[in-house]
Structures are given as structure tokens and as C-alpha cells.
Amino acid sequence: MRVHLCVVGRLRFGPERDLIDDYLKRFDRTGRALGLGPVTLLEVEDRKGGGMAAEAALLRKAIPSGARLCVLDERGKLMSSPDFARQLGEIRDAGTGDLAFVIGGADGIDPSLRAEADMALSFGQMVWPHMLVRVMLSEQLYRAASILAGSPYHRI
Ligand SMILES: C[S@@+](CC[C@H](N)C(=O)[O-])C[C@H]1O[C@@H](n2cnc3c(N)ncnc32)[C@H](O)[C@@H]1O
Fold first, then answer.
1. What pTM was estimated for this model as a whole?
2. Cα(100)–Cα(4) distance, rounded to whole angstroms?
3. Which of 48, 105, 107, 132 is the most buried (most CB within 10 A)?
4. Is the CB of 115 within 6 Å of ligand 1?
5. pLDDT truncated to tens, each residue of the chain (156 aa)?
6. All domains in the chain, ordered by first residue
7. Which residues form a coiled coil (predicted)?
């Protein structure tokens, strides 16, 4: 199952970028034997200041057609890491070809795009900067693959 992180804004370098690259590389490595990955980071940028609606249009173009869609949203579902891993495994086992995660920009995700999502995942009720949410999601994907692989990365 191919996994896509569809995000607003470009991050060319810096500590967040290094962490994202590292976790996504680890996810690919661990997920390969599990039918998870490859993962791609698809960054979109609206330079015309068109707001959430313009960002949503760019995100829709980036999301592969037919992909299952999960938006990151503080109002979404709270999950433990093992639950997230289980859900990822179930989506894979259902024969899903593409799973796309969407992280909004500073204004959030356009309500129309949010309404199209199959699920909404929350990292808590607090609002986090979108660049940090990228790091957190990348790490949770790697953690989920580790849990499904039975590797000792995840410890409670
Ligand atoms: C700075 S936040 C935007 C906040 C915006 N005011 C809103 O209402 O959505 C940027 C993006 O980060 C993600 N995000 C921020 N906090 C989150 C959380 N607690 N759980 C999941 N995603 C979160 C969402 O995708 C959000 O669109």
C-alpha cells in the first residue's frame, strides 16, 4: 500500500525536514516486508494567497485518485499507537492501493476537503504547527510499522 503525505508548504531543509526524511526512510525500510510503502511527501504551495480553498484545490490534485483519505485534524479521532498500527494494517488488508494523509496549512484544511475524508486523525485537542505535525505523523507511521513488524521500537 503506497502512503502519501499531502501537505501545505515547502520545507527544504532544517531539523524538521531531517527528522521527516529519517522517519520516512525508516518507515519504508520496515514497511517493505509488510506491504506498507513506499511513502511519498507531496508538498503543495499556493503563492497567490488564495487561502484554504486554493490550498484544497492543490491538495486534491496531489492526492492520487482513488486513495483512501485521512485528514489530520485536532477534532478528529484520538488513537493509541497500537490502535493506529492496527488500523493501518486493516486498511492495507482491505486491498487499499493508496492511502493519503492530509495536513493543512496555517489556516487549516478547507471544510469541503475535510468532508471528503474517510477518517480524521487527531494528535490531541491542542493545535500544533503544521511542520511539527508532519514530524509527528512520520514518526507514528514508523512506529506503526515497527509495531506490525513486532520490532522493539515501541515500548510502553
Ligand atoms: C496550525 S494547524 C491549523 C489550525 C487551524 N486553525 C484549524 O482550525 O485547523 C495546521 C494543520 O496542522 C494539523 N494539526 C494541528 N494540530 C493538530 C492536532 N492536534 N491533531 C491533528 N492534526 C493537527 C491539521 O492538519 C491542521 O490543518
1. 0.96
2. 5
3. 105
4. no
5. 999 999 999 988 999 999 999 999 999 999 999 999 999 999 999 988 889 999 999 999 999 999 999 999 999 999 999 999 999 999 999 999 999 999 999 999 999 999 999 999 999 999 999 999 999 999 999 999 999 999 989 887
6. 2-149 (3.40.1280.10)
7. none
